[in-house]
Specification:
6 copies of one chain form a homohexamer.
Chain A lengths: L12 E15 L5 E9 L2 E7 L4 H6 L5 E11 L2 E11 L19 H14 L3 H13 L1 H6 L13 H19 L5 H10 L4 H4 L10 H5 L2 H15 L6 H12 L15 H24 L27
Parallel strand pairs in A: 3-5
Antiparallel strand pairs in A: 1-2, 1-4, 2-3, 4-5
Helix pairs in contact in A: 2-5, 2-6, 3-6, 5-6, 5-11, 6-10, 6-11, 9-10, 10-11
């Protein structure tokens, strides 16, 4: 059945399974209804049009369904678009699962889980360790499956754990170079800093914002949740709780970026930079992978709309 | 014993009681220690120097002590300064209390309390009513005594309640004019919006910021506390809780002013403006009271450093 | 003949009268000319295409003409569009008037006029009263028919008077709560603040900007006109004139929003907020009316592009 | 009697006449009153202290009086300060006049007046010519004596006319190089652009802002006055009037710099730059005159706080 | 063969030669390949579609080729578009050259060259004169043929020299009016300020940015090149070299506009304004030429998106 | 002779050697000259006043001289100030050297030198290696002695090398974690990025800005110098040279921070963050060292004026 959609070019035909990510109804200029689908497999995404869609089509081809389809890759206003020739829902006998069609972290879930466990063992401050352990236990499944964001960086299955584990590795090395840094605080802060996303984002496969996420945002939600967890663990009033709340609250660095307080503790300041470095490396590596030496990447919206250059000497 | 310090002019002598607000040690150019005191009574504040301070003086003349002193009002670099001739700690027999020396809201505490009670009776939404009632009960004393801020507006005893009650009155009228507004949400939001200041500010008399206040700020602290209160009242998950948290979170209007989310609910938007109007009226009225028609006020830092004009026709 | 265009959905047919708001010529990919029309009735607006338009069509179907047409509501790039089947100009015998096709203030013109009169009677300062009365007399028709803006808020017939009268109601209540406010100055400032729009905007039905409006703007034009009116009334040099000019000049609040001076008089500051509250309530109510509880509105450009949430408990 | 104050150095004695620009009372640490005077002659300014000032001194040594004094130039917190030894009011028999003590434009008043007249003769558009002529006639004395600003640039007697005449010279040359520019519009715009300062500033010698200037500013005041002048000349409705108002309104270039409309006419845009060039040359030349080649000037507040370098090769 | 493309209107047919500026491949909704061409002649530019393009077409119709074509001017989404009926490559026998199809400065190359030579003769400072002469010699061809920018202003053949020569004329006049200005420094700075564009831009006809231009920009490249030239001329360490580098470095005026240092030398400050005036006059004149008196130009992106008004009295 | 000045408190007497960093003349209110000295030893800095300074004193007590003095530490306007009792120039026989009185990096010069050498050995790209080696050779002494800045961070002897070596260590670890990073480019970029400071700053002991530094800044100067070095090494045109220039040019991250181009190469982006982390750790550690757990540091100007908190649990 061939390669994934991410490897097709304009003019290629395609025959295979894909997951419906979004489906929108429209009416064509001839007055007939059609469906605009956003389809994906583990290698990429493509837009598609299903012309002359019947009422039944509208109820059947909905998000999170897998479809078997064949068609041809055309170009429409500068973007690839799949012209569907035939399409049907996948059957149980087809042996395909939703999880086959989503991008995953390049590191296995088990390894990510192991690394988290190791780090918690390494922690010495009992208050921080207990809080972190309680959160890991409470949100075990979410931490290991959620993306770190709905787009831009680590926006894939296990993206959140991948981001955390990469940040922990930087933290370990920075602590070696600057022993003044409180390793436990860095570790705890990194593990907790984005857990509010488990409530801010709607899910693993088709990720949008929850109402709660839109009205409060992951930062204040997590600050609150740390407070409640401390209460449950009868650790109210411990300074570690306050400092962890501050680290989470301030990790976007500036008020205009969503942190009502800027970092006012050394480790909070450094965590902000570790977060930036890992997010940027993730975006840069994936964008540069798509171009050849001597070329510029597409403009990266989340990096101030810059196009990055890949030097020719990278070939050497 | 005469008028308050707020009514003295350069050249006047002063003899009376005042409260020590701040005390700082210094060493004069002749090598001798001195104390710089900030003194206040209910009518105003003044700086004072106690030259040749003894070790004992340093331990005796400390913040929140009342002193009896006489001296002369001089001018030092454009500001009034009291040259102390004699000073002693107030005795129990002097019959003076700290509360005599602090500025108070122009409305009696009992009346403020009554108005709050009335408003809660008026509320119909049971979730909001119960949450508000629980907070009023929990923080009864603080709500009725705290200032609304450490400076700028309503920075006096009962300032917080005064600010709340004034805002409630505006809300009632706006609800009459725009019946689409949810009155209960406005009322509950107004009562709760600044309660985080009870933890952000250090106290009623000598008001500074607590460590918790500096690291988290009153907004995230109050969002958390509403969540915990809802839990205690077994109201977790009620939409009213989320909306109240949002109203508190967004009441500064913009991220750069400390609200990580801007108002996204009608009443949150309007509450932000009610807050601004009452704070500005408080600042403007007090500044304009000090000048004559035809003059400009001093520059008001919290109002973009503007000097306001009092028209001559105000005399007519 | 059925409901207005504002109540149709994609797929519906439509048969009725509408007013042409804009008409633009185009050439289709087949080389034939067509007309893009923006049509409206009292319930809303819709785009329409008249394909294969003749030369005569181009001269006949022009702005401010009423047409009788039938067609079907399709969707084009996410927006509703009327596919015209037949169209003709309305005849005198059809008994339709331009005024039937434009949105109007929800309050009758007579009532708005009455409220203005009442307020002027209530004023005590003779200078302000005379100036306001002179403007009301001079621009009677315009004040009662013009919109308050070409888009965003109160952009309907009598919108200007509706906005003024709503603001006056808020002012009355704020004056009750803060008796320090000069009621006459608030009233006069509110009535005058936007009258420059009578020269800045081109008219009631199809509202665009005049050349004068583009080069000077309604604020400096109105400041000038107050000066000239004072001259005509032989009130030059009265302080009230200067203060009214200042209130008009500063009512946008900041230089970057079009006020070369910020409010420097108490009532000017408060008027700015009354203006904001009434404009925002107008936009919010109309946007929230279109969505169900639990939904967000479309993004509101004039409110920092925010989408507002309508809580579920609004249903209770 | 010696050189002017501008040529004295720390340690020099001074004996001569000066004009009192400001006088402020103070009380010394010994409780005795003193006067802080700002004194000036045509060569510069200096601060002075008159210790042990009597009640009579306070009524006698007031702004705009000329005094004869002797003293010594000391340094106080990095600034020169005159230590007064003796001081008395100037007598009629001393033969000194206020005009001897103020800085004047480097071009004679008669020559400035002549240049203005020449330019008006050169104008061909009758509407603009008549308006300009009417203003020159109305404000003859003010135009030829006022400074262009209270500080920063052309802040000396006849500074306004000097600034206008310099700008007219640039305009003439730019018109030669870019004949598309409408010379009459440039000339008229330049002559009128700052005339509002005649009402915004309090006077020639001790220049502060009038109440009208603070509440409206010179730009809206001048826009209004052009409208009134057009009315008096029965030229209402002529497009030239509108364009001249626009040129004046927009000459600060941006809303945040005080122009509610940016330049939207070619000559308005160019006038804004001519204004900037002449103001900057005035500031730069005067600052660079005070330093030697190879040095930097003091920081110039009105030029973004920059310190400018004077190259060594300027000596060659 | 008729008029240039710049004089055609929608509906006109066109038959003539044009230069291909850009060529992009696409696939139509019917699956067939097409070419989107941007074509130009000396009078303007137009988009065109070549439907059903063969493989050979793709290799033949490439940038900088001249084609002979006939077609019709249609409108597509509000912009003119040429519907190609027939097209072929130009033959040597057609007698057309690339230089016939590009816009040129309104002043002849020879005259521009002469003016530059005159100015160099006029210079007296030997260091600046030698450096300028060396650059003129080194880049003779580029200076006289390059545009001053890839778009916005002077974006035509010889645009760079045209811009330089216009600026030199302004500089001469400003030096006459302000003799304090160092004429040699202004002249040298103007000639050098944009020469870095010879390396930043890819060429005369189809102007894009070089990799070097994207990564360094013309300003740092020129600063470096002045340093190297000084070395070659054995003038290292002369202050004139440093000052010229500063003038080039600072000529964009502010860090956020690309100058890491703001102007800190008088002539650098003035050069910045001369640059602005000439660029703006170039944009304004060309935009205003396209509209009639009483109309506004299209919005000018490089001038803060303003639309400029052409007064009616320009007709008189 | 006792402890260094950094360990004295107000009221202590001091007797020892110090280095004069700055000396300024003044005239006291009694008309007598005095000298304000800024003195330092390896432990800190203090202001001092030498009253009644003779003409000889003014010529003798100048910057970079060592003095022996005794006095008492007083407080003046909230800052410590040394009241000098006796002072004399140090004699050769005193056995003190300038280098004893300046703060030094906490790592020995030899070790810093060794680390640099190791890193260069590790590099594999011959172009980058040769350029780096050439610079190390050319500026050997400066690299190992200069501070990294005149204030804020690494502002001590060998601060530049200390900063480089710390950054190299971070780079090594990040390269381990993200093997996509080009290690040679990171290493070369780090070593070169701030070498322009050798020309921008005046020297090791009393560090101010050179004229060249003020007019060009270290970034453009270093870009130029890399170009010249490449020329000398006959490596002109190698892409590595361009990329290294870009890395240096962009290392401040944004135009408004002094980089006319933002980072457009992956390693340039990461180097910017490594630079920030090391500078911030340096500032944070030194500020936090001065306070006790539970306290806030003084406000750090170069870190957005924040005061940082040192948690109490740091004591555990």
């Amino acid at each position: 059945m061939g390669r994934g959609i991410g490897y097709t070019a304009v003019g290629d035909s395609f025959d295979g399974y894909m997951l419906i990510k979004e489906a929108t109804k429209g009416v064509a200029s001839n007055g007939k209804p059609f469906l605009t689908l956003i389809l994906r497999d583990a290698t990429g995404e493509i837009d598609a049009k299903l012309w002359d869609a019947s009422k039944e089509d509208e109820t059947v081809f909905i998000p999170e369904q897998i479809v078997r389809l064949s068609g041809e890759v055309n170009q429409f206003r500068g973007r690839a678009q799949l012209k569907i020739k035939s399409v049907r829902l996948a059957q149980p006998t087809d042996g395909v699962r939703v999880s086959d069609f989503v991008e995953k972290a390049p590191v296995e879930r088990e390894i990510l889980s192991e690394r988290l466990t190791e780090v918690i063992f390494e922690m010495e401050n009992p208050v921080m360790q207990r809080i972190v352990r309680a959160f890991i236990t409470k949100y075990q499944e979410g931490i290991l499956t959620y993306p770190a964001a709905s787009k831009n960086h680590h926006e894939y299955v296990s993206g959140l754990a991948h981001h955390i584990v990469s940040m922990l590795a930087i933290a370990r090395e920075l602590h070696n170079l600057y022993p003044e840094l409180n390793k436990d605080l860095l570790y705890a802060g990194i593990i907790l800093h984005d857990l509010g996303k488990l409530k801010e984002l709607s899910g693993v496969v088709t990720t949008s914002y929850t109402t709660e996420g839109k009205l409060l945002g992951h930062i204040p939600m997590m600050v609150e949740e740390i407070g409640q967890m401390a209460k449950e663990l009868q650790m109210e009033g411990e300074e570690e709780v306050l400092i962890l709340q501050h680290v989470v609250l301030s990790h976007h660095g500036k008020a205009e970026w969503g942190s009502p307080k800027p970092p006012l503790v050394r480790e909070a300041e450094i965590l902000h930079f570790i977060d930036l470095i890992d997010a940027k490396m993730n975006m840069l590596n994936r964008a540069l992978d798509k171009v050849k030496p001597g070329e510029f990447t597409e403009r990266l919206f989340a990096m101030d709309n810059r196009a990055f250059y890949k030097p020719l000497f990278e070939e050497k």
